Structures are given as structure tokens and as C-alpha cells.
From TrEMBL:
Protein keywords: Glycosidase, Hydrolase, Secreted, Signal
Enzyme class: hydrolase
Location of this chain's protein in the cell: Secreted
EC identifiers of the protein: 3.2.1.78
InterPro entries attached to this UniProt entry: GH, Glyco_hydro_5, MAN-like
Name the UniProt record assigns to this protein: mannan endo-1,4-beta-mannosidase
Signal peptide boundaries: 1-27
One cellular component term from this protein's GO annotations in UniProt: extracellular region
Keyword flag Transcription: no
Pfam family, one: GH5_mannosidase
Amino acid sequence: MASISLSSMRFAVIIFILQSFLSVVVRGDIRGGIIRRQGTQFVDSNGNPFVVHGCNFYWLMYQGADQWSRKFVDSVLDDAQNLGLNVGRTWAFSDGGYRALQVSPGKYDETVFKALDYAIIQARKHNMRLVLTLVNNYGDFGGKPQYAEWGRKAGYHIPNDDAFYTHDALKTWYKNHVRKVLTRRNTISGVMYMNDPTVFSWELMNEPRCETDPSGNTMAKWVKEMAAYVKSIDKNHLLTVGVEGFYGPNHGVSKRWAYPFNTDNTGTDYIRLNKIANIDYATVHTYPDLWLPSWKNPAKLTFLRIWVNIHIRDAKKILKMPVLFGEFGKNDRVFDYKPEQRRQFFWTVYDSVFSSVEKGMSGVGSMLWQLFPKGMEDWDDGFAVYASDLSTSEIIDSQTIRLKKMEQAMIKARNATHAQADVIQLWTSNERSRNDR
């Protein structure tokens, strides 16, 4: 083999540097493939880091089911893209009731399913991935209470809504819904959901709780069973439980104080549930305005900062997995609210996430609750964020800019390291060939 020249080595380095810049250019494109977990980080199919900068808009399928209201889907995705958001969270369920996806166990409204198809396609066009949640803990859009009611109507003994976690029929109905959604073939793209890189992850349940078993055993058993079932169908996409981040009764005061009222009866545990096999990343929600209504704003901010950083620390040291702050928001209906309070709230979350990314910790993203387009003011729960509200959108833009710079630096460093390694490998191979002659 002929020896490699110095100019050839320089050419190889140049090629890798160009590839680095090209990868940055296409970073916003969904062509990064299915996102996966690598230790405590998210990476795309090329191994490049992926930091979640996202929002919630749970209503995409609901509004997309009617031609008149479908404009809201397009509008909010336009806003999200303009703000630089890359992941959205929305419901992949609607059980019974008006515009139901699952009208009754196993029976689906194709018009509503096509609305979810449309939402996924539009998200892809706007370079956004979606967290798809598979059922609700609450009665909104059906959820756990609707499954229990279906069970009663079918003649089963359903003593309470938490039978959702234990009754064979209800568990089977949930599994059937999981399979129906994961194996759905999008009527617009022809791609099955389980093969679509637009799907960022599956979420077993929105804010699961089981108050009839405070020990957490019932919830842990259900998560173990359902996580294994999801992965038996789709091994490629990420999976999360969907918990709020409460520490269970078995943890000491040093952790449990962070949620300063009794949550021992929720039957969930941030550590225990996220350590279950097949769970890829942890989630945390945070609502000081709802949890601590009598506290002053400075005290709420102190709580928020500690709450966020405790969960990042434990995700790194104990869970050894990424943690995503899947819901956070500031209520503009609290007494003496001022826009500056929302700015402070957002900066507290964003700074903690940015610092975590910078230090290689486990906190790798956040998703504000919730982004709305103009025209949906009637849906505002006090936490609505509008792109036209400069006091908030400027903060989101700032986080977008610095996260993109961080990602680009990380990608360049990674590619430069690979380029150097490849040059060394080429040189070593050449030396071996020369010695063999």
C-alpha cells in the first residue's frame, strides 16, 4: 500500500469539517431520524446531540377533526416553528364523548384518526417531532374514568377508576389501543406511526396516579407490564411513563419536602417508576401556582429552582437517564400577576436546562404548558402562551438561540474528534503497511 501524504491527511480533515457544517445546516430537519437515548442524553440517528426545546398542544387531533378548526393546527405549528421549538406533546387518545377517537373499546372514528394523521404530517413539515400520549389519568378526553365506565357498562365489577391498572378487561382494552395507535398507517404519508421519525416518543399516561394503593406497587406493576408491551411492538422509539415527578413515601424528607404538601397517596414514585425496564427517560411537571397557592412569587421561584435541580441531579446519579421537564407554566390568573413573573419563571427552568446541557448532566429539555394560536382564547386555562406576546416569546427565542449554539458546538466538537480519530487511524494503518513491506 502506498504511504498517505500529509496533504491527503489535511484533505481528510477538511472533509470532516465540511461534514460538520453540513450537519449543522440540516439540524432542524426531521431527517435526523428516530431520536434515541445514549446514556443520559438524546441523540439522532447520526449520533448528534438532540436537546428538547418544546411545548404542549394537547388538542391537535381534536381541532384537526373539523375542517373549520383545522386552521388552528396549522397556525400553532407555524408559531412553534417560528419560535424555534422542535418537539410538541399532544394526545393520541380521546375516549368517548364529543369528537372521540375511541368511541367505545376497539371502535374508532376514522375521521378523528385522520385528524391525528394530519397533525403528524403538519408537525413533520414544520420540523417538529411529537410526544404522543396514550391515555389520561383524568376524565378530560375520557381517560382512566372512561375505561372504568366502559367496564361497568360491560357488566364487570369495577369498584373505582383505579381498576384501570388491575382489571384484565380494562388492561386489554388499553393494550388494544396502544397497538391500534402504534401500528396505524398514516393515510397521508403511508408510514406507520411506529416507523415515523416524527414521533419523538410514546408516553404511557398523562400524570398517572393510583390513590387506592399509596405503596406504589400497583402502579409499578402496571408500568412494568405496559412498558414491555409497547416495546414488544416498537423497539425503536423512546418510551416514558408520564409521571409528574413526585417522590414516594419511601424517600426521606430531603427529597419529599420539594413538593410541600402530602403526595404520599398518589401511588407514584419518580425513582421507582423510571427505573423500570423499557423506560427510556424520566419526566417532571411543575406548577407552583397550583401547588403552592398561598406562597409569594419569590418563594415559588425558590421552590421551582430546587425542584428542577433535584430531579436533574437524581436523573444523573440514580436513574442514569435523561429527564425532560414535560410540563411547566406560570398562571397569569393568580393574584397580583405581572408579566415579569412569567419571564422569571421561564428563565428559571430554561437556565437550569441550559446549565445541565452545558455540563453534560441529565436535564436535556423542557416543554412549556401550553402554546396557543390566536382564536383559541376560550381554551386558555391561565397558562396559555401566545407567540404574539413578546414578553414571553423573547425568552423562548433567547433559549432557542443559545441551545442551537450549544448544539452546534457539540456537533463540531464531536465531528472534529471523529476526524482526528480517522486521521490517526489512517496514519496508523499506513505505518503498519509500511512496516509490513
